[in-house]
Amino acid sequence: MYVSEALEHVEIINETLLKLEEEPGKKEYLDLIFRSAHTIKGMSATMGYNDTRELCKNIENIFDNIRKGEKKLVPNLASALFKCIDLLREMIADDKKKVDLKPYLQMLEHPDDAQVGVAEPTSSAKSPTIRVKMLDLDSLVNLVGELVISKMRLEQTLSLNGSDEARQVMTELDRLVTDLQYQSMKLRLVPIDQVFSRFTRLVRDASTGLGKQVNLIMDGSGIELDRTVLDAIIDPLLHILRNCVDHGIETPQERESNEKSPTGTIKLTAYGVGDQVAIKIEDDGRGINTDRLKAKAVEKKFITQDEADKMSIDEAISLMGTPGLSTAKEVTDLSGRGVGMDVVITQVEAVGGNVKITTKNGKGTTIILTIPLSVSIIGGLLINVSGDKYVLPLSSISTTVVVEANQIKSIHGQEAIVLREQVVPLVRVSKLLGMQETEPNNTDKITIVIVNKGGQSYGLIVDSYDRKQEIVIKRLNNETHSSDLFTNATILGDGSVALILDPALLV
After folding, report:
1. Angle ∠(158,490,482) on CA atoms, nearest 5
2. Is the pTM of this model over 0.70?
3. How far apart are the C-alpha atoms of 191 and 129, rounded to whole Å?
4. For 73-95, what is each residue's pLDDT tens digit?
5. Which of 103, 203, 352, 425 has the most CB atoms in a 10 Å sphere around its CB?
6. Do 55 and 101 touch, CB atoms closer than 8 A?
7. How far is CA 338 from each of CA 302, 323, 472, 480, rounded to the nearest angstrom?
8. How many CB atoms lie under 10 A from the CB of residue 179?
């Protein structure tokens, strides 16, 4: 991603410089070159390519001086710039290339004196990839989604009144459409390592600013994620890592007094979990002070003192998802503004993921983000509620159970069942959706779908469920929202529309 994007900016500089030679005073060309040089400089600094950054800085300075009227783009200077652009292209395409920058920088400084005292580029640098607009990729994936829907409708029609030959052709078509779907989804996959690589500098700068010593260990395990999902989790990961450095890792003096190594460790790991990806962030710091968290929540009047006293550690940790709650003693660049884990949780849940936090006082904190591989086509369970069909994402479902009506108990006014020695609170989906429900008698069987939110199990009472199938997600715009419980829909094999329920919003 860095190589293709940086090379694109190099071509912009090259082409615009040719135009600038013809129209030297055109500010639009100067601004465009300056922006591209500045962008490459920032990208290379982030990736740790210091020679590339240094060359870009000098090219940027030349154009800044031309823009200010302190220099003129004379032919010798233009030639020197073109040679530096050729070198820049090679350095970006081959990050192992060793170059003595001194003659190039001298040539930029004194273009009239230093005529070609540098080696010519030996080969034309080529990018191993091509850049495609995300909009075009989205359109392709959407068209494949429509094809999948049509395939399901055809499949359903042939199952009712199709010949054996037609079914055989359908089987071949199903295989081809599945392959096409896989390849189109693969186009949008990006290695998670590309995002992880950005965090080394962040942790270094944050820890240095706070006078702390932190070692960041990363392992992406070759995992690839849909670009849309990856973009959505960058901010949550940045926030969590800043929190680890600011709140979690202690100062070297504090760590040594607690018989720890003066250098704290943050581990960032990605691994597959079925059709999902888990990203684990763990530190060996001081852990979350749940007493301070509860005290702050009481002070802010989010809970009462009585509720705080009765809270378990897990319940106290869940307070971190409360908007406006921060335990930071003062506002800094990193924390204290009350914009915290609630934003992280909201953003992760928005792409169908969930967040689990565990902590041990004095030992550290572990945060696990579980997210889907893709947000375009997912596995879903078709459920029936008061005569209508809805879809629940399979990624959020733990299991399904059928119980007798008399097994449902009321605990402090909340319906619940005991499943594997665990109390599971129940939610009647029909009631949440404002639909009429038939009161069961004690002889009725009750169908319950068990979902997980933040490590806690909840049971969704539905009339029945049909089957699991691939679901092509259709986004609903704001005007279409008839409820806060769903934001997406899908088209079923019979052509009817089913709303996709978000378990995180239901419970």
Report:
1. 140
2. no
3. 14
4. 888 888 888 889 989 988 888 87
5. 352
6. yes
7. 13, 7, 37, 32
8. 10
